[in-house]
Amino acid sequence: MTDLKNLTINYDDCIAIVEFNQENAKVNTLSEGMMNEFVPVFDQLQNNDNIKGIVVISAKPGSFIAGADINMLESAQSRDELYKMSRNGQDIMNRIEQSPKPIIAAIAGSCLGGGFEIALACHYRIALNDKQTKFGVPEVKLGLLPGAGGTQRLLQNLLLPDALDLLLTGREIQAKKAKTMGLVDILVQSIGTDLENMEYLYSFAVQKAKQLIVQRPSKRQYGLIESLIQTFKILNGAGLNAEAEAFADLGMTNESKALISLFHGRTECKKNKFGKLNREIKTIAIIGASVIGAGIAHVSIDKGLQVILYDTTEHALSRGQLQITKGYQNYIKRNRITHTEYKQILSNLNYQRTFDNLYKCDIIIESLYEDLKVKQNILDKLEQHISEHCIFASNTYTISIHDIASNSQRPDKIIGMHYFSPVDKVELLEIIRTKQTSDETICSAVHIGLKQGKIIIVVNDGPGFYTTRLLAFISVEIFYLLNEGLSPKDIDKATKSFGFHVGLATLLDEFGIDIIANIVFHLQTIFGERLIDLSIIELFRKFIRNYLFGKKSQQGLYIYSNDNHNKKEINPKIKELIKDTSIQTKEILTMEDIQWRICLRLLNEAAKCLEENIINSPTDGDVGAVFGLGFSPMKGGPFRFMDTYGISKIVDLMNNYQLKHGDRFIPTQLLINMSKENKTFYS
Predict the structure, then answer these.
(1) How confident is the model at residue 431 (pLDDT cuts 50, 70, 90)?
(2) What is the 8-class DSSP label of residue 104?
(3) Exposed end of the chain (fewer CB within 10 Å): N or C?
(4) For residue 342, which of 362, 363, 327 has the smallest C-alpha distance?
(5) Are 645 and 270 in contact (CB under 8 A)?
(6) Cβ of 421: how many Cβ atoms within 10 Å?
(7) What percent of the chain has pLDDT over 90?
(8) Which of 37, 117, 366, 430 is catalytic?
(9) How far apart are the C-alpha atoms of 573 and 570, rounded to whole Å?
(10) In degrees rounded to 5, what are phi and psi of residue 106?
């Protein structure tokens, strides 16, 4: 057992301790290299009469095993390869489970996917009871299922509803919940630092292994499925074969490939590619206690930052305070934090109506009304109070960062940080740089965003940036469809069927039709009829004049109940509003027509943003559309979808829709060129 690069083997009397420690990696995965070492090590320990028990543990705090190596899955060229991969994994887990020597999993940190399957195959499971220790099968979110016996062992160890919950949602559960469900035999409590916890878990597991040599653990209380398997042994083999067949089938689908592509994109957007911080960020201020401003404070105060929430009125600050405290009180109810943690977190937040103490800030995030003069004025005032190193970030969704910084003496310190509402739930953060923004400033903004738990795309300053621009184009097409007599429910049904997280008519109401209208009016001055013609501009104006702003005014495309905001009916006023502008057409719009008309506008504009260098890569474009607008994750984002469907076919569709509906469907030159050259966005 020499020349091991991913494992360390230690001994304590008759107990062997196998430590997972993947080479050159922050976390352990079931990579090919890891498994090529583990199997022969396991066989040798099994055949060594001096070894009476085995402990498997990680040498990396915070990571037992985070799952299978995605790259290994992607390298499979055929369904047969995936089937064999699954069968091989099942064989290894069966050998662990059938070992005559007790095998104990000592778990600290993420125990996910294939790592969870290893733990399930062990005879005894000990888990560190801390926030980092989580169990689950997140491969479900990649369009796959557990392929090394996990489907069978979860059904054996859990009641059917609990097993199906994990298998169908891919959600992760904390150690305490896993113990309650019967997935963990015993919890050990945190005693100090990560290193101290790992040493304690190590020694505890070794002592437990010695006990189990004398007395093997009693049979678990299994669920209904296990009882049947024990009665009809043949079902187990059939279940494993069905698992392997399904794993192989799913792994070859476009949906799984798209979700894996998105996973890689998400991982990339969780990195800071702009160097290391030159100065530690300790204190931030948020200017404006709006819903967004309070939301930014909410996701900052539990990250070790000192936060100042500023507004000019006591009423606004009280409203922001109520929003934040309610959010954290909800965390207490859901057992995410304790009362002690709640008090400590809120102690990081200060409310103020003056510019006092702003000189202490490392970054200031402005979240005021979407008006250029307002943002320029606040920047001008703040520059008289803040330190030289302090960064000014504007939470804007349409206004040019270059214009905001036009009167600044330090444009290199000005940046955009576009948060999405609700801030504590929407993961995406769109950071906007200008030509003058320094890499140091971008690095600091990305650092804060990552600390807040965000997925980040960095885009270049330009009309509407990226996500707002896509939102404008799809919103306009929805209004064209309304003008042709289509109902909001038809639009919601078609877009949800396509894979959008929320029906797009509902999304407009939730976002605010008044806000969308202002975005459209602004971008119409730049893009003209490529975006919208005057009749549809007038339809937007009618909505504004009639206060049809959406959910916040209780009426927009739908009418909302006072008692239940989730209850909605189609707004009958729409028919009256389109009376003067509606287009009478004999064409019967199919669901596919609705989907293509909206999606082609989005796809074309996404490509246009790449062509104009608003976004820097297809990956950023896919991540932005999925996590910012709810584009179908199973299609991987607009660029991955165009590759899969075929860019030449997309261009043909655009040309056909141009003939029917006008020049707003003219494909961008980038797509035309790629179609002619048979190129794709991803290699």
Answers:
(1) very high
(2) E
(3) C
(4) 327
(5) no
(6) 14
(7) 88
(8) 430
(9) 9
(10) -105, 110
Q: Which amino acid is at 69?
A: D
* Backbone torsions φ then ψ of 487, nearest 5 degrees: -90, 155
Three-state secondary structure call for residue 518: helix
Q: Domains in the chain, ordered, with CATH?
A: 7-252 (3.90.226.10), 283-461 (3.40.50.720), 467-613+646-677 (1.10.1040.50)
Indicate yes or no: pTM above 0.85.
yes
Which pair of tokens denotes residue 196? Answer: 């101290």
Tokens 């007395």 found at: 215
- What SS3 string covers 625-682? HHHHHCCCHHHCCHHHHHHHHCHHHHHHHHHHHHHHHCHHHCCCHHHHHHHHCCCCCC
What is the predicted pLDDT for the residue at 232? Answer: 44
280 as an active site residue: the answer is no
User: Per residue in 584-618, pLDDT tens?
Assistant: 666 788 999 999 999 999 999 999 999 999 999 99
- What is the average pLDDT value for the chain, to the nearest integer? 93
Q: What is the dihedral of CA 173, 176, 179, 180, to 10 degrees?
A: -90
List of E strands, 330-441: 349-352, 363-366, 391-394, 414-419, 428-433
Let me know the angle formed at the C-alpha of 572 by 568 and 575, rounded to the nearest 5 degrees.
135
**pLDDT at res. 563:** 72
Give the pairing type, strands 414-419 and 391-394: parallel
The tokens describing 331, both together, are: 């965390």
Q: Which two tokens stand for residue 116?
A: 């969870």
CB-count exposure of residue 183 (10 Å: 0-12, 13-18, 19+)? buried
Grade residue 318 by pLDDT with cuts at 50, 70 and 90.
very high
On the CB side of 572, CA atoms within 13 Å amount to 0
DSSP 8-state code for residue 420: -
Strand order in the sheet with 391-394: 349-352, 306-310, 283-287, 363-366, 391-394, 414-419, 428-433, 455-460
- Cβ-contact 19, 4 below 8 angstroms: no
Q: Evaluate if residue 219 carries a pLDDT over 50.
A: no
Nearest to 180, CA basis, from 247, 135, 239: 135
